[in-house]
Amino acid sequence: MDFKDQVDLDASQVEDVGGSRGGGFGGGGFPGGMVLGGGGIVGLIVMVLVFVLNNVGGGGGGDPQPTQRQPAADLTEQCRTGKDADQIERCRVVGIVNSIQKYWKGELAGDYTTSKTILFTGSVNTGCGNADSAVGPFYCPNDKRVYLDLGFFDQLQSQFGAQGGPFAQAYVIAHEYGHHVQDLLGQLDNGGSSVPVELQADCYAGVWAHNAVSTGFYEKPISDADIAQALDAAAAVGDDRIQQRTQGRVDPETFTHGASEQRVAAFQRGYKNGARSDCAQSELGR
User: Fold this and answer.
1) Computed over its alpha carbons, how large is the radius of gyration of the chain?
2) Paired sense of beta strands 129-132 and 123-126, if any
């Protein structure tokens, strides 16, 4: 998955606000399971996990580590072209966001409004309240922004067991922009289980992946290896895998995002034809 070296990036779509981290990853903010309704966030996992918190607030011991302030980065200076996106992680996020938003702007025509991605470290203030990294990447419908701590990409491998890679990162971001599309189309809150909403966001991520090259940001077609990274990431954040790892048992009655098999199938459904019409909530999760 390589960007075209000379393609221009629009860094205004991503803002790095910095932040602080100390005493472990997470440790406050939104409670686990705050997903839909009342302006709640929606995201890839949205739950406080013991292994994410590194035992902070979860019965772990040890002295807290000093808080370290991470300065904000000027992305307009760092991220100018696709060559920068291939070399710098923050710029890769810019390139992915640019491609996703170009696709959906064309697909939804006048119904699409640009959503900024906010990069933060540790914790961040949002239109949905204060949040920290423990909830994972998320979308806030109140301010129509995507929030991402880049440390999550390392966690995806080290703590969720995914193989990682650039297109795993693209899947994560495309899922969050799937929520933005749902928000614009009035599909975000179906008044019931959140699982169909989350699977639809996975499906929308697959739709973008099918059409990613047509946005003009990528050098060549998305490879089977790229798609394998996305599918592996989708499986890694399935409710069943997370529950088995954190509590040693699986309870389908408490699923909020869908099982690994469902999340993979939803992405594949969107990727197969690249058509938004294939992502009806009523057709997902069966």
Assistant:
1) 18
2) antiparallel
First to last CA, the chain: 32
Confidence of residue 142 (pLDDT cuts 50, 70, 90): very high
CA distance 216 to 173: 18
Beta bridge partners of 132: 123
Question: Where does the chain have alpha helices with state H?
Answer: 50-53, 75-78, 82-87, 89-108, 151-158, 166-185, 195-211, 224-236, 239-247, 260-273
Tokens of 176: 């969050």
Q: C-alpha angle with apex 14: 277 to 74, nearest 5 degrees? A: 165
Asked whether 166 and 1 are in contact (CB, 8 A), the reply is yes
116: left (phi over 0), alpha (psi -120 to 50) or beta: beta
Q: What is the pLDDT of residue 184?
A: 96
